[in-house]
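Protein modeling request. Please complete all fields; requests missing the sequence field cannot be processed.
Requester role: graduate student
Desired output: 3D structure, token encoding
Chains: 1
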Amino acid sequence: MKVAIPSNTPGGPDAGISPHFGRCDVFTVVEIKNGKIVGGSTIDNQGAHFGFGATPAEILASSGIDVVVAQGMGPKALELLGQSGIKTYFTSVQTVGEAVRELIESKAKLATPEEACKESKTATGPPQTPVMPPFGPGMGRGMGRGMGRGMEPYPYGPAYPPTAPPMPHPPQQMPKPSPPPTGRFKVGVASQGQGGLDDMVSPIFGRSPSFTIVEIEGKDIKNVKVVPNQFVSAPRGVGIAVVQMLASEGVKFILAGRFGPWASSTSSQFDIQMVMVPPGVKIRDAINQYLIGSR
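Delivered output (295 residues):
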């Protein structure tokens, strides 16, 4: 089952649910199988509200979505989703993760036309820019000679809201890791090349070519193992799958240049700490600086 939730940028399990279904930044997509999350991704909202041709319902239907969970939506959107075979549930929770948990636990409420509204009742913020009708003949400054198009630019701004690209992801901030344990522990480092202590830390996590797993005791490196990333070409759910793979190797710390929201959420479930490392740092130096040297 693929579930879509209108979300604020950048999406993911920790993102807030957008109170405006049609005007959300992105749709967070969660794939659920047998009551467990097996994949996650996002879809940019390039719907009709932003000047594109497709409606949000058409976007989600073409992406194979089965269920939508939202804080509210208009009756027309609810009807279009139903015509596309997509079930809609309403929720009062605030984050994507809470909504998914509510759906898995069968606590989500199936939406009805009577409950549909123009916007969520909890929505706040400035009013949307009104859509002004175009001039009719004789109404523009061109005295009708423009045949309804007007002779000068529309005096109240564009007739339709301008198309805006999706907002960029905000800079990612990770908490400073706690001191590593005093006993023996393992570190998984996203490797940019073939792996090894002299390789560079990859600027990405889920689709890095390999992972260098380093076993440390005290301040000494005891063992090094390179694991090819078998999920590098997977279509979805890469971050979740890679964290699960590293957890099976006994890793307690993961080093990479950046982590996605799904990887961060999954790592906390396995009690794995994530450490962001600046680009261009050797794996050996990163371990010494951010783990061994932080004692």
